[in-house]
Amino acid sequence: MFILKKVVINKYKSYSSKQVVELEDDITTLVGKNESGKTAFLEALAKLNYFTDDEDFKFDEVQDYPRNELKRYQRAGEDVEPIVCTFQLDQETIDEISGDLGEGVLTTDSFSVSTKYKNGRTWYHINCDEKKYLEKLQNELGFGEVTKTKILELGSVKAVVDAEPGENEELASVITHLNNNVVSEAYDWGRKLLDAYVYRNYIAPRLPRFWYFDEYHELPSRVSVDAIRQNTIKGDLTRKQLDTAKALFELAVIDVEELANASSFESFIAELEATSNEITDQIFEYWSTNSNLEIEFKIESIHRHNQQPEKILDIRVKNKRHRITLPLKNRSKGFNWFFSFIVWFSKIQDEQDKNFVLLLDEPGLNLHASAQADLLRFISDLSDNYQIVYSTHSPFMVKSDALHQVRTVYDSEEGSIISDAIQEKDPDTLFPLQAALGYDIAQNLFVSKNNLLVEGPSDLNYLTYMSNLLENEGREGLRNDVTIVPVGGLDKVVSFISLLRGSKLNISCLLDSFNNAKGAQRLDGLIQSKIIKEKHVRFFDEFAGDNFDKADIEDLFEKHEYLEIFGEAFPDHKGVEVSDLDEKRSTILTQLKALLGGKGFNHYKPSQHLLSMGRSADSFSKETLNRFESMFKEINKLY
Questions:
Q1: Residue 223: what are its φ and ψ, rounded to 5°?
Q2: I need a surface site. Which of 56, 281, 297, 431 has the fewest CB within 10 A?
Q3: Please, which residues have CB within 8 angstroms of residue 21's CB and are 6 or more apart in sequence?
Q4: More confident residue, 426 or 639
Q5: Could you read off the pLDDT of 41-71 as tens digits, one per residue?
Q6: Using alpha carbons only, what angle is made at residue 404 by residues 399 and 407, rounded to the nearest 5 degrees?
């Protein structure tokens, strides 16, 4: 299968200046705002070699040439190539050409093809060494050195077949051979006859066809059988919808003429339902949103005054859980999109020749984020057999671990501009990529199944440091398969738990004591609603000792130990002693705040300083080590 490597688009709709786009071998993603030129790029590609005969996918200079330049272009009488595609030859084709013409005759492994507005398709860059081919003919035809010298002097197939053989019978036989085996099988390209032969026999028949799908191909709820039979648009039906409906009947192997004249429809409905079941099974390999949906078909015969009865196909979606059916257009647009996609895709899916490039314009636009992730998986699986180019402006349709696949499309004063993601400067165009990265970073906070939510980064520092310290002493620290996740404050803990309850993660909390009743009530509400178990919400005051009704993680240290760390982090307060603290206040942090005249301080700074102090277990009291170890043992039991 040939691989599309490069596309040059120029003077097509919003593309006023030439744009060169390198494509990936499997999936290329076009990202850009609405009206940036993504659809125009896909359309221009499709028009190069659309998979079926369709007037909508043929170049029309009046409709396609940039409007503000059209009159000047028409007056100049020029002919422009709106699209040039460069393809990589596959090894199988190269081997076949070499077997036919001789090793080394084909001197390139790629070619280009374009379409002009006025003069149609043009081929480029298949280069054959005609002298080497003519040398090879001596072994095949067995002519002598005199004839060989004459042929090599002529130097090309064109020159040889145009030569007068005179009395040279060997030369006459070579000319006959070339006329019968090359010239008659080649395009009429004048001098480059061997190139023309290769194109006609090995390239043109294998040129990839482009298959295009957008939301306008979605199946309608009701389709006139007569419209399908006559291939005419009726009512609100669009051409693309009609084509998809025709594909459904073709897939079900239904004779539309026979259906139009039938009085009973049971056998036709059975065929449609069997096809629907097969398609639905394909959908549910990737559709995790709702497995209770199925397609139902009805065929009605509508009688109008003094007219032949009209047959109507009614397509409905049944929700098996709620036991209701609704017209296809009134149900999930996402499911409708997926179902229509599979129907339209069926036109090429069963072909043995998989030589297609799939062009998907805003796929899954109406899908939920998780369903878009399913669609991405579907597209990835399709890329095993097809090269795919799709457009999107959704961050959930961008693979953050494959940003090399992304090309950004930006509408500038000079027209649409396409570039690699790393070259793009427009913040609005970059937003889906930034959002995809942000979402991926958020997801990857939870790198293990077991996660311990804490309030902030200082908790993360203290827990990590003391856990490592205990493990170095052969004591128990925090389990290695538990990830500590700072959520950015006590008020965010409840939101995190609520949002992550369906993510199949084991979540526990280790928190400072609540300072307000509202936060405690919200957390109690989660426990009462069984969103999180009570035993999975733990507080530092449980491990700080009997003297603490409230505690922060800093209270697990002996006070003189924490004051030493505090003094190292804040040299201006290095002389603070335990006796300077107000014991009436509940925690060491509130005591220090009072000592500083009510001014707060950065709680993170002492924890960060501790990491650089290089302390051993001997620097901490037995009581401190025991408190942390006891806490880690209890937390570990939660997993």
A1: -130, 130
A2: 281
A3: 6, 7, 8, 9, 41, 407, 418
A4: 639
A5: 999 999 999 998 888 899 999 999 999 888 9
A6: 90
The 3 state secondary structure assigned to 320-371 is: CCCCEEEEHHHCCHHHHHHHHHHHHHHHHHCCCCCCEEEEEECCCCCCCHHH
> Of 167, 187, 209, which residue is a domain's last?
209
In whole angstroms, what is the distance from residue 588 CA to residue 555 CA? 6
CA 626/CA 633 separation, integer angstroms: 10
Q: Which long-range contacts (CB under 8 A, 24 or more apart) does 374-378 make?
A: 374/286, 374/287, 374/288, 374/289, 375/286, 375/338, 377/286, 378/285, 378/286
**467 and 631 Cβ atoms separated by less than 8 Å:** no
Which residue do the tokens 């359309």 mark?
43
DSSP-derived 3-state class of residue 223: strand
Residue pointed to by tokens 């009085």: 263
pLDDT band at 502 (very low <50, low <70, confident <90, very high): low
pLDDT tens digits, 327-343? 877 777 777 888 888 88
Which among 209, 228, 260 is the end of a domain?
A: 209
Predicted confidence band of residue 421 (pLDDT cuts 50, 70, 90): low
In a domain, 430, yes or no: no
Q: Which of 195-199, 305-309, 336-340 has the highest mean pLDDT?
A: 195-199
Q: Does residue 541 share a domain with residue 503? A: yes
Q: What is the pLDDT of residues 85-139, one digit of tens each?
A: 999 999 999 999 999 999 999 999 999 999 999 888 888 888 999 889 888 887 7
Q: Is the same domain home to 112 and 232? A: no
538 forms bridges with which residues in the sheet? 510
Is 193 within the bounds of a domain? yes
* Residue 121 contacts residue 40 (beta carbons within 8 Å): no
Q: How far apart are CA 346 and CA 247, in angstroms?
A: 7
Single pTM value for the model: 0.70
* Cβ atoms of residues 439 and 68 within 8 Å: no
Non-local CB neighbours of 277 within 8 Å, separated by 6+ positions: 294
Overall number of domains in the chain: 3
